[in-house]
Amino acid sequence: MRERLTKGFLWLAVLVSGPIVGAKLFDLIVLAGAWSADPPHSLRMMPYGEAWPVDTGVFFIPFSAALLIASFGALVAGWRTPWRYRWLLCVPSLGVFALLVLTVVAFWPMNAALWHHAIRSPNDALTDSQSITMARHWVQLDWLRVAGGVAAFIAALRALTLPWPDEIASKDPPIVQALLLIALAGVVAFIVWFVLNI
C-alpha cells in the first residue's frame, strides 16, 4: 500500500514538475528577457496591468500547489524507506517548499517594486539605476527557481524508476517524530498563509 501510494504521488510530481520547468524557462527567457532587457523603459512589459489579460500566477500557483502536495505526499508515504531511497523523496518536497518561500520573500516584493517603478506609481521607491540592478538580480535569482524545478523533476523521476526497497527503516525516536510534526505543521501554516495572500 505504501509503495503504491508513494509511486502515485511520484507520478503526479513528475507529471506536474515537467510543465513547470518548461513554463519557468519560457517565463525567464521570453517574458523576463523582454521586460528586463532595458530597464526602466522595458519594465512596462512586465506581465501585469491592463495590457496583460492573463496573470502568469494563474498557471504557476495551481501547478506549484499540486507539486507541493505530490512531493510531500510521496515523502510521508515513503518515510519508512531506507535513507538511500528516502533522500530522493526529500529533494522535491523540501526544494519546492524552499522555492515557494523564496518566491514570497524575494520575488513578490521585487515584482511589486519594479511594477510600481514601471508605471510611476505613488508607491514607487526606486531610482532608475536601482530598477536596473533589481531587474538583473531578479533574472539571476530566477535561475535558482529553474534549477530547483529541474532538481525536483529529476529526483522524483529517479525515485519512480528505482526498485522499491524491500527493507523498512527503523522507527524514528520520539524527538525526531515531534520535530517532523512541527515541520509539517509549519509547512501547512505557510500554505494556508500563501493561499490567503494570493
Topology, pairings included?
Layout: H1 2-35, H2 57-77, H3 83-118, H4 128-161, H5 174-196
Helix pairs in contact: 1-2, 1-4, 2-3, 3-4
Mean pLDDT: 90
Task: Characterize the biggest β-sheet.
Answer: none
Helix content: over 70%
Total number of strands:
0
- Residue runs with pLDDT of under 50 for 5 or more positions: none
Look at the helices and sheets and give the structural class. Answer: mainly alpha
Give Rg in angstroms. Answer: 19 Å
Question: What are the salient characteristics of this protein?
Answer:
mainly alpha, about 200 residues
What's the short version?
Helices cover 75% and strands 0% of the residues.
Task: Give structural notes.
This protein has 198 residues and is mainly α. It has one domain. It contains 5 helices and no strands. α2 packs antiparallel against α3. The longest helix is centred in the middle third of the chain and has 36 residues. The model has no long low-confidence stretch (mean pLDDT 90).
